[in-house]
Amino acid sequence: MDDVYRYIDANRDRFIAELKAFLRIPSVATDAAAVRVCAEKLTGALSEVGFKTRLMPSSGNPMVYGELAGNQGAPTVLVYGHYDVMPADDVGSWTSPPFEPTERDGRIFARGVGDNKAQHMAHIKAVEALRACGKTSAPIKFVLEGEEETGSTSLPGFVRDHREMLQADVCFAADGPRHESNRPTIYLGCRGVIGFELKVRTANRDVHSGNRGNVVPNPGWRLLDALSSMRDAKGTVAIEGFHDDIRPMGEEDFRLLGALGFDGAKMGKELAVPELDTMAAREYHERVMYRPTLNISGLVSGHGGEGIKNIVPATATAKMDIRLVADQSPDKIMALVRRHLDARGFGDVEIVVHDTMKPSRTSSGNNFVAPIVAALREATGQEPVVLPALGGSIPQYAFVEGLGIPCIWSAYANWDEHNHAPNENMVVELFIQAIKMSANVFHSLGKA
Predict the structure, then answer these.
(1) Does residue 104 sit in helix, strand or coil?
(2) Kind and range of the H or E run holding 410
(3) pLDDT of residue 390
(4) How far apart are CA 205 and CA 209, in angstroms?
(5) pLDDT tens digits, 340-390
(6) What is the Cα–Cα distance from 135 to 6, expressed in whole angstroms?
């Protein structure tokens, strides 16, 4: 594979320039025009390296599909990625404009560079390098969606409707940040997520807090009481049945966690959270991979501007998310939330669910794990980190349940990519390394 790696190094400037061209497209999932432009450009990029491509409709944003023949008898690899990006509303917090990719300190700064454009671009450039050097690969299918950041709403139905077209032996994808060591990283699953709001209304308008205070109920206090009922003094979720379906950790889970380090002092300093200083590695990783969460991401009620406004507000809203672990069901969990609130007299608290994604996990003993780990090791000279699950949420279940195949992910972005935040970035050398890793994975699986 040395000739492939030399080709990648020789073309690095062009690869970076092509990546930047994609990054200039502000393909936020809700921007239909920008999404279309990005999808068409990706279709062209796949065609240029030899794929038979189709830009396909879905119930939402278009799907980019590509198919490339490979070694007969080798397993077919389905590659997933997403070309939509998070909004960049907080432009003032960026050091450089979010949709004008800028290189500094060995990194490319732009919205979507780590999540997920550089990661699926690495797969495409890997195929180019293999074909340019006359190397064979496994048969490869690509599916790139434009709604991952809004819950991949259309993907499960698209997979179900095109099951025969998408059928493969394994799904291999790249997303998320690497382990904090920035070594090559494999993860085998993810937590699921439910994004929802709790809403309280106590009047049809805001009223004067002197004239109507103690008379008109305050929705802020009402909402806080409801929220407080949902966890105990130690921070444990107190919703009955919330933990019932969690898949127990097995011997292999404990073995994998035992191989993972964690520098709590470093993270504590970086985030200004001193409680992390003494957190043990196993405790940290269990919390992130194996335990569900109940999170408040925003609270809104009354006046939020400068100064004070003496009112009793009419409404209060909590924006929330629940991260689910293997075997938990979004529908069942939300039914438990409703039952909990009703049982405690909070029947007036409205629940509005915005998006859900199921958790999923592939066994570390799956037959594809070892060869993919070996391919990453050979491409980098480093021992990959194998994570049982990602703390975040990705639509793995769409392929595991929809196609009945295992999913194995590699995280190509740097540990501190700042995805979903200002100054999202990708270390340039890790992007080039990612192309080499994908090339070796596709070539190695093609020999199977």
Answers:
(1) strand
(2) strand 407-411
(3) 87
(4) 12
(5) 999 999 999 999 999 899 999 999 999 999 999 999 999 999 999 999 998
(6) 13
pLDDT per position as a tens digit, 329-352: 999 999 999 999 999 999 999 999
Provide the pLDDT for residue 448. 66
Task: Say which CATH architecture domain 192-249+290-357 belongs to.
Answer: 2-Layer Sandwich (3.30)
Name, in order, each residue with C-beta under 8 angstroms of 393's C-beta and a sequence gap of 6 or more.
190, 191, 192, 193, 323, 357, 359
Kindly write down the DSSP assignment for every residue of 181-203, as one continuous string.
T---EEE-EE-EEEEEEEEEE-S
**Residue 392 token pair:** 């975040």
Rounded CA gap, 34 and 22, in Å?
11
Domain at 2-190+360-446, CATH class: alpha beta
| Alpha-helix runs per DSSP H in 49-117 | none
Q: What is the rounded CA–CA span in Å between residue 174 and residue 160? A: 22
Which residue type, as a one-letter code, is found at position 400?
A: V
**Gap between the Cα atoms of 440 and 374, Å rounded:** 9
Q: How many CA atoms lie within 13 A of 357 on its CB side?
A: 26
CB 90 within 8 A of CB 422: yes
User: Taking residues 176-184, what's their average pLDDT?
Assistant: 92
Q: How confident is the model at residue 418 (pLDDT cuts 50, 70, 90)?
A: very high
pLDDT tens digits, residue range 28-49? 999 999 999 999 999 999 999 9
* Amino acid at position 339, single letter: R
d(CA 231, CA 229): 6
CA distance 198 to 224: 10
CA angle centred on 122, ends 118 and 125, rounded to 5°: 130
Cβ of 89: how many Cβ atoms within 10 Å?
Answer: 10
* Separation CA 142–CA 78 (nearest Å): 6
Q: What is the average pLDDT across 281-303? A: 95
Give the span between the Cα atoms of 419 and 439, in whole angstroms.
25
- The domain limits of the chain are 2-190+360-446, 192-249+290-357
